[in-house]
Automatic annotation (TrEMBL):
InterPro entries: dTDP_Gluc_deHydtase, NAD(P)-bd_dom, NAD(P)-bd_dom_sf. The gene is rfbB. The keyword Protein biosynthesis does not apply. It comes from Phragmitibacter flavus. Its cofactor is NAD(+). CDD domains: dTDP_GD_SDR_e. GO terms for molecular function: dTDP-glucose 4,6-dehydratase activity. This is dTDP-glucose 4,6-dehydratase. Belongs to the NAD(P)-dependent epimerase/dehydratase family. dTDP-glucose dehydratase subfamily.
Length: 359
């Protein structure tokens, strides 16, 4: 397989940083691919952290560029300068609660930003084809939330489930998915889209359910469970997602979409109980009492009841399966947050400073 020169967007965020580590680490051996360069484009919003990439310092295959994906001219320049043949587009505003409080950045980054990425890639790809190069691929990374909410007995979302986004976040992602689809159909941009369920693992910003709850259990703080805690999500360990993304862009068929899921549906309350049990087992001295910590709070407006993913297509066509179970992935994750308190403390400090700066 020829040498890959990959531009990743959002590579200082949760999934992006795990992806960059995967591409420059296990991907070579697991997928038999040679990756000579990863250009990591990230604006470093509150969700992006250079410290998540600290282990790559000194690795000259990794080039970090602080840049807004809405700056199409700069993206085009980077594509040419580094002779990129694969784009993996992850940069986004990603937190549903924030999209309810303040939707505008979601429209700007997720829709306008994705448009600028697609447009820069379209022009670049045209030049490459004119020069006889046909190996360019663009991966658009999306979410299961674009399909809306399922009833208790509905089958999981498949690649043909109609779109029905319910939050400003999922609507902005759905809009970006439609743009991506249009760029394949109208301009033949060799583009693949993936729709994935809830990820968890190292380097996740502690506003999302798992890292938030782990942190609060460690500190003995109240655990805010929305509504009655019976909303259901499908949970996928982030490295399994990164392998699925890489397989999809390298071996997937342009124009196709692939659902990626953890085959692991759980009620939120059961996730929280499992996290308390895991922290107690790793740190018996803490001995946290679920009854004392769990607090049911006001529900998220428009809170989707249930997500579930039918990921049989990527299994059948690309041979992808999640390698972690909830128990093994969740244990690793709890261990990681216990061992990396300094990572959390550093991003909390940075976040406080940004908020003071905003005030
Ligand atoms: P994240 O919020 O942790 O990271 C997003 C990254 O994008 C940050 O590093 C941020 O600085 C960067 N970014 C934001 N706006 C930018 C801009 N305008 N220009 C350049 N960079 C910008 O998000 P995540 O959880 O890692 O999600 C990554 C992608 O995966 C998103 O597209 C998200 O919709 C999708 N996704 C996430 C999940 C999940 O469970 N986290 C599940 C399915 C799909
Ligand atoms: O404090 C909380 N209490 C609570 O009960 C938080 C932060 C969440 N929840 C619930 C809401 C959801 O039902 O837990 C569930 C998971 O919440 P989030 O971690 O906010 O994730 P979710 O809204 O499901 O979206 C995530 O998965 C799909 C990512 O944030 C998205 O980027 C991705 O597309």
């Amino acid at each position: 397989m020829p040498d890959k020169r990959i531009l990743v967007t959002g590579g200082a965020g949760f999934i992006g940083s795990n992806l960059v580590h995967y591409l420059l680490g296990k991907a070579g051996e697991e997928l038999g691919v040679t990756i000579s360069k990863v250009v990591n484009v990230d604006l470093l919003t509150y969700a992006g952290n250079r410290s998540s990439l600290a282990k790559l310092e000194g690795d000259d295959r990794h080039v970090f560029v602080q840049c807004d994906i809405q700056d199409g001219a700069q993206i085009g320049k980077l594509l040419r300068e580094h002779q990129i043949n694969v784009v993996m587009h992850l940069a986004a505003e990603s937190h549903v609660d924030r999209s309810i409080d303040s939707p505008e950045p979601f429209i700007m980054t997720n829709m306008v930003g994705t448009f600028q990425m697609l447009e820069a890639a379209r022009i670049y790809q045209k030049e490459r084809v004119a020069g006889g190069q046909n190996d360019f691929r663009f991966l658009h990374v999306s979410t299961d939330e674009v399909f809306g909410s399922l009833g208790p007995d509905d089958p999981g979302f498949s690649e043909t489930t109609p779109y029905a986004p319910n939050s400003p976040y999922s609507a902005s992602k759905a809009g970006s998915d439609h743009l991506a689809r249009a760029y394949f159909h109208t301009f033949q941009l060799p583009l693949i889209t993936t729709n994935c369920s809830n990820n968890y693992g190292p380097f996740q910003f502690p506003e999302k359910l798992m890292p938030l709850m782990i942190q609060k259990v460690i500190r003995g703080e109240k655990l805010p469970v929305y509504g009655d805690g019976s909303n259901v999500r499908d949970w996928l360990y982030v490295e399994d997602h990164c392998r699925g993304l890489t397989l999809s862009v390298l071996r997937g068929v342009p124009g196709e979409t692939y659902n990626i899921g953890g085959k692991c549906e759980m009620k939120n309350i059961d996730v929280v109980l499992a996290l308390i049990a895991a922290v107690n087992s790793e740190r018996p001295d803490l001995n946290r009492d679920p009854q004392e910590l769990i607090t049911f709070v006001r529900d998220r407006p428009g809170h989707d009841r249930r997500y579930a993913i039918d990921c049989s297509k990527i299994g059948r066509e690309l041979g992808w399966e999640p390698q972690e179970t909830f128990e093994t992935g969740m244990r690793k994750t709890v261990r990681w947050y216990l061992d990396n308190a300094d990572w959390i403390e550093e991003i909390e400090r940075k976040y406080q400073l940004q908020r003071l700066g905003d005030a």
